[in-house]
Amino acid sequence: MSQRMLEALWQAFLDTVWMVGASAVIVWFAGLALGLFLVTSGKGGIFAAPRANAVLGALVNGFRATPFIILLVALIPLTRLLTGTTIGVWAAIVPITISATPFFARIAEVSLREVGAGVVEAAQAMGCKRRHIIFNVLLPEAMPGIIGGFTITLVAMINASAMAGAIGAGGLGDLAIRYGYQRYDTAVMLAVIAVLIVLVCVIQFIGDRYAHYLRYR
After folding, report:
1. How far is the C-alpha of 31 from the C-alpha of 24, rounded, in Å?
2. What single DSSP character describes residue 115?
3. Which one, of 34, 53, 206, lies nearest residue 108 by Cα?
4. pLDDT digits (tens, 9 = 90+) for 28-61
5. Rounded to 5°, angle at Cα 111 from 36 and 214
6. How far apart are the C-alpha atoms of 118 and 136, rounded to whole Å?
7. Nearest 10 degrees: CA dihedral of 37, 93, 149, 147?
8. Per-block average pLDDT, block size 10, for the chain (217 residues)?
């Protein structure tokens, strides 16, 4: 592989890291907030609002059921409105974030629901306020599962960033399509696959280790 292609591969890697990293920050806070709302606003929850819970749950399911490539195209007007363009790294952040947030919200919801009802009831019996139950009971108890779920979400976001290359979003997917596929450069295609595998393995290893640490600290 030529020096020029190595530089292009490095730049594509940086673009992918930036694309996924910026999206991940938004997904972490938005998805966790959604997950908390879905848990606490359900019937019998500490912020019970069954109607709002049902509406939000339906919206989350709707976005989760939409394939990413379709969502990518459907969100082009919104992407152009928010970023002023439909190509490049910034344009890809919008659909990746909107696609991954409901996914992570459901994973966070599952982890939060695994916290025993008796733990929450004990906190209420001790006079804990609702915000204390969220930040001192629910989140700490569920955090290992949430971290594990967020790791899975990050891997899915890397896959989505590669697909976003199909519309010129930049990153490793764009490089693989422009050079590996359109120009039949097998070396570039294999290099992109190798980088993606290493990136996913590193993220999965770090996520698993941190979740293990939180679970047994």
Report:
1. 10
2. S
3. 34
4. 999 999 999 998 888 877 777 888 989 999 999 9
5. 110
6. 15
7. -90
8. 78 90 95 92 80 91 88 88 83 91 93 78 73 82 92 93 78 79 77 91 94 84
Question: Burial code of 181-216, b = ≥16 C-beta within 10 A, e = fewer?
Answer: eeeebeebbebbeebbeebeeebeeebeebbeebee
Count of all residues that appear for the chain in the document: 217
pLDDT at 202: 95
Are residues 176 and 188 in contact, defined by beta-carbon separation less than 8 angstroms?
A: yes
The residues near 130 (Cβ < 8 Å, ≥ 6 apart) are 40, 46, 47
With tokens 């592989």, the residue in question is 1
Distance (Å, whole) CA 12 – CA 203: 18
Where do we find the tokens 């490089």? 175
Residue type, 175: L
Find, among 37, 41, 46, the residue nearest to 106 by Cα: 37
Neighbours of 169 (CB within 10 A): 28
User: Which pTM value belongs to this model?
Assistant: 0.89
CB 151 within 8 A of CB 104: no
The answer to whether 61 touches 53, Cβ cutoff 8 Å, is no
Q: How far is CA 117 from the centre of its chain?
A: 27
